Amino acid sequence: MAETKTNLSEFDPVWSRIMDEAEDAVQEEPLLGGMVHYSVLHHPTIERALSYRIAVKLTSGEISEQILREICDEAYASDPELALAARADIVAVYERDPACHRFLQPLLFFKGFQALQSYRVANWLFRQGRRDLAFLFQMRCSEVFGVDIHPAAHIGRGIMIDHAHSIVIGETARVGNNVSMLHSVTLGGTGKEEEDRHPKIGDGVLIGAGAKVLGNIRVGSCSRIAAGSVVLDEVPPCKTVAGVPARIVGEAGCDQPSVSMDHLFGGTASDP
After folding, report:
1. Where does the record place the Serine acetyltransferase N-terminal domain (predicted)?
2. In sequence order, which residues have a C-beta less than 8 Å from that of residue 20 and are 6 or more positions away?
3. Domains identified in the chain, total number
4. Residue 78 domain boundaries
5. Per the domain annotation, does 118 fall within a domain?
6. What confidence tens digit (pLDDT) does each residue in 162-189 have?
């Protein structure tokens, strides 16, 4: 065990830190010992821990935990990008969410992270042509977490979805790297068209709570969308938009809004 942990420490610092935090958690709260052991300490890699956690959360009378674990294990073995993205997501949550004090927390307790990893497996299934299974993952993720992400959507690394309740991301949506969004965000369409109909979110974008971005429009990198806004038009890079419908109210205010998580704006509003 000691040799395995040394290797993990050398090659997978995120997993090594989670393991250390899990051991501390068991010491601090023995009543959670069983949960922490089954979720973390019994697994040799983060991939196996993710498979277990997704399966435990999504299992139902219609599909067993064992089958779900086998599907997830296959996905992680087939596509290393899934676990690389999960590591980046954990770091993003830890760095941006002031309520997150350990790497262990997203894996065990944060439904935004857990829903995102469930989506990533569903997306892998969708890309393999196993669409019914992908839709099953989507359905269970919506039922369990209140997060509805179409398995065909494209989502980058380093994503932080805070609180996550009522998140909706449509089929042809694309979300770049290092994006942060809060609860009740919708990346949706505007009608019944079946082609490319959902937003394209650039890297480093911050999307406030309750914001709706609708249609096949682009939101430029490192921009900010204020809480409660309805965005119907393209957003240039490095701008802040607010309102219903949203309009430019100033600059983004910093190089990486999604990292700073600064939702306040005080620039001079542009002309309506």
Report:
1. 14-118
2. none
3. 2
4. 14-146
5. yes
6. 999 999 999 999 999 999 999 999 999 9
